[in-house]
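Exercise 7b. Backbone tokens:
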């Protein structure tokens, strides 16, 4: 009886989302992947679209690693050795050699003392923010931070919260001034790459501002960045926003599920920090880790990234990103310039965004339409994401579709 009432209330919520255009809609189901051939990158067959082939311009797999034979082989070999699941949480009997090896490699990759794997990057941010926030902690956060940071903050009961304008370092400075005297510890939290826009936080400006106030908090000012969209895909060596800006934050959150093409999240920092999180982060303590096969695949990706093959893949990604960005601008479209492979097409209108996504889909291109409230009103866009397995012919095809749309209006 109670469920009947609940269902009615939930249905009313769903109807409201749909009538106002705020629903996510039905999920696309990929039924088959056609491997790259000739001058074409991978193509995707979707349920309900027959044999129509799609260029996927909305994937986080920036380095195109998920179908690299050596990575697949590493995953399959580890599954044969360790099975398909860990069978327990880490502190009971779920820790296996590939987990330890991967954490060691990640710490080395980022130049840190230690690393810690979580089941996803989303829960990593929450699993870092929650244990580090006491009733005498102040949080200072960018207004466009990812939902995982927002939810992590909502779990906490800090002494105070301050939100500064997006990437506005003068406003960050002002908020830190306000924060002085309100708590013993201050956490300055930001994304590395802001996933809806493709722009980055200027770590080289943020870190010095935070350090300026360090002595005015008994337990210091700690900089935390979630660089899930940056790691592997950004910077001259693929180390993300730290690599690009030449500046390290105190605590860095990354993911294995985007540029690395696998699954899971992680944090790198001091040995003491990681030991503390082992004992206090519920998202780690009470959740199974990623599988041994996923850990082995991620290890292989890290190995490849520092080889000639990895450097060439990264250079190709950067070249295709610039080709696509310049091509859109030449067609008269607005974008947010940047070196990251998230290339937004700023539409700034909900109906127009919906119409363009529909046209792209009809012509075999997958892009992500972002409307309010996912983005602020007036910032409606189509988020394109360039991957290293896109070819020049792929980019030319997508630009051709965009040109045809302009001409059809």
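Sequence design result:
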């Amino acid at each position: 009886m109670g469920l009947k009432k609940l269902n009615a209330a939930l249905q009313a919520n769903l109807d409201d989302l749909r009538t106002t255009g705020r629903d996510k809609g039905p999920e696309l189901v990929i039924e088959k992947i056609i491997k790259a051939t000739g001058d074409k990158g991978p193509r995707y067959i979707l349920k309900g679209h027959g044999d129509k082939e799609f260029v996927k311009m909305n994937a986080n797999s920036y380095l195109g690693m998920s179908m690299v034979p050596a990575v697949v082989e590493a995953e399959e070999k580890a599954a044969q050795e360790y099975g398909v699941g860990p069978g327990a949480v880490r502190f009971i009997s779920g820790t296996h050699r590939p987990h330890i090896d991967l954490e060691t490699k990640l710490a080395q990759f980022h130049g840190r003392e230690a690393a810690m794997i979580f089941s996803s990057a989303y829960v990593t941010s929450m699993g870092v923010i929650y244990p580090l926030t006491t009733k005498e902690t102040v949080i200072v956060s960018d207004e466009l931070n990812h939902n995982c940071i927002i939810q992590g903050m909502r779990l906490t009961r800090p002494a105070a919260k301050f939100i500064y304008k997006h990437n506005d370092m003068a406003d960050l400075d002002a908020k830190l001034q306000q924060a002085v005297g309100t708590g013993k510890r201050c956490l300055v939290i930001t994304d590395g790459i802001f996933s809806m826009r493709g722009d980055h936080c200027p770590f080289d400006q943020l870190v010095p501002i935070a350090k300026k106030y360090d002595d005015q908090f008994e337990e210091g000012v700690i900089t935390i960045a979630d660089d899930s969209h940056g790691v592997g895909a950004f910077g001259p060596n693929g180390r993300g926003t730290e690599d690009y800006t030449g500046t390290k934050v105190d605590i860095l959150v990354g993911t294995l599920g985007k540029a690395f093409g696998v699954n899971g999240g992680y944090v790198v920092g001091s040995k003491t920090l990681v030991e503390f999180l082992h004992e206090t982060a519920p998202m780690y303590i009470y959740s199974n880790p990623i599988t041994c096969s996923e850990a082995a695949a991620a290890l292989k990706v890290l190995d490849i990234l520092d080889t000639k093959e990895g450097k060439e893949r990264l250079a190709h990604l950067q070249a295709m990103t610039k080709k696509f960005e310049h091509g859109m601008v030449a067609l008269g479209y607005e974008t947010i310039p940047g070196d990251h492979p998230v290339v937004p097409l700023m539409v700034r209108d909900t109906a127009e965004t919906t119409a363009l996504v529909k046209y792209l889909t009809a012509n075999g291109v997958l892009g992500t339409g972002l409307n309010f409230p996912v983005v602020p009103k007036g910032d409606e866009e189509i988020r394109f994401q360039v991957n290293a397995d896109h070819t020049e012919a792929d980019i030319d095809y997508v630009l051709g579709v965009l040109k045809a749309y302009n001409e059809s209006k």
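Instructor comment: Residues 24-56+308-408 form a domain with the Aspartate Aminotransferase, domain 1 fold (CATH 3.90.1150.10). The chain has a mean pLDDT of 95.
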